[in-house]
Amino acid sequence: MISDPVILEQTPAADFTIEQKWERYTADEHAIWDLLYARQIDILQGRAVDEFYTGLEALDLGGAGIPDLAVINPKLRALTGWEIVMVPHLVPDLIFFDHLANRRFPAGRFIRRRDQLDYLQEPDIFHDIFGHVPMLTHPVFADYMQAYGTGGLRGEERGMLKELARLYWYTVEFGLLQSAEGLRIYGAGIVSSKGESLFSLDSPSPHRIEFDLERIMRTDYKIDDYQQCYFTIESFDELFDATQQDFKAIYDRLEDDKAAGQQPILPADIVKTDHLLNVGTQKRVTAQ
Ligand code: HBI
Ligand code: FE
Fold first, then answer.
1. Interacting residues of 105 by C-beta distance below 8 A, sequence separation 6+
2. Contact 104, 82 (CB under 8 A)
3. Rounded Cα–Cα distance for residues 114 and 146 (Å)
4. Any idea what the CATH number is for the domain that residue 49 is in?
5. Pocket lining for ligand 1, CB < 6 angstroms
6. Do 207 and 278 contact (CB within 8 A), yes or no?
7. What digits encode the pLDDT tens for the residues 6-57?
8. Which secondary structure element, helix H or strand E, spans residue 117, and what is its range?
9. Are 99 and 105 contacting, i.e. CB atoms less than 8 angstroms apart?
10. Domain contains 230
11. Does a structural domain hold residue 286?
12. Region 90-113 average pLDDT
């Protein structure tokens, strides 16, 4: 439940946006950002993709305290035409897709409390801006995010919201990249999480499977624990190219299978078409 008074006093616009009112953040809220930032930067050393660090530096997100949209939006716009808009909470899928289709990334205004440092359900400004925004400075990833938005608007008409959410989940939120130096993280849900920044690369528990768009769209996910499977790309071009294919044929197959009563693939499942980097033990350690 959102308790941020600056959010509660505002009536969101039709597109669910509100004002950031950056001057209304308290010293303690800025201190929580600095604490989270310092901790994640330390944990992520050598774990996130190079492009993540490039974006962090380009936008100077580690400056001091919660970033002011008035300061970082001009920098982000100059790099890839994206901007951040402030929203009170998760917005309806169609509104979300429309923002992405217009290179607007919706970020929550509130920051987590000190007793929520390691985990919270609702994306706060640290998850959204530290986790998602650095990658939006990368031209190809920026194109992918816009293509996801435009594809989402079309996919919604085919009743494919669940399948689209899975694609977002296993790439934008929890994606890994096979770099020359080894596996690296680009997913926002991982880079903004202390425990999962370690677990996603080091643990023998999860499966690590090469990216396969249709397989991902068939794969369910859980939102309240570490992932039981991660999907890996070889480049951001691979990710963007996957959005340029004929989705009608994919949606037709998905629709037929759903009509035939086929169940989703479960996160712990492996299917015969999988190219596996490793088969996970699936021994579940509870999220620390
Ligand atoms: N709204 N503000 C916000 N942030 C999100 O990440 C978000 C959302 N609405 C829907 C949504 N994500 C997911 O359903 C996406 O997979 C579409
Ligand atoms: Fe997110």
1. 82, 83, 84, 85, 99, 128, 132, 133, 136, 145
2. yes
3. 34
4. 1.10.800.10
5. 87, 90-91, 93, 96, 106, 123, 165, 168
6. yes
7. 999 999 999 999 999 999 999 999 999 999 999 999 999 999 999 999 999 9
8. none
9. yes
10. yes
11. no
12. 97
Q: Residue 15 belongs to what domain range? A: 5-278
Report the nearest-CA residue for atom 7 of ligand 1: 90
In a domain, residue 288? The reply is no
The enclosing H or E element of 39 equals: helix 27-44
Strand 207-210 to strand 229-233: parallel, antiparallel, or no bridges (unpaired)? parallel
Sign of the torsion angle spanned by Cα atoms 215, 50, 76, 37: positive
Position of tokens 């920026």?
A: 142
Q: How far apart are CA 73 and CA 85, in angstroms?
A: 9
Closest-CA residue, ligand 1 atom 13, reads 165
Instruction: Provide the residue type at 215 as one letter.
Output: R
Q: Is residue 92 part of a domain?
A: yes
Place of tokens 């993709």: 49
CA of 165 to the centre of ligand 1 (A): 8
How many structural domains are present in the chain? 1
Ligand 1 midpoint to CA 180 (Å): 32
3-state secondary structure of 108: strand
- Type of residue found at 103: R
- Distance, CA of 19 to chain centre: 22
Q: Are 109 and 7 in contact (CB under 8 A)?
A: yes
The tokens describing 61, both together, are: 């997100």
Write out the two tokens for 87. Answer: 């929203």
Q: pTM score, two decimals?
A: 0.96
- Of ligand 1's listed atoms, the one at least distance from the Cα of 89 is 2
Order the strands of the 276-278 sheet from edge to edge: 182-185, 176-179, 229-233, 207-210, 276-278
CA of 272 to the centre of ligand 2 (A): 30
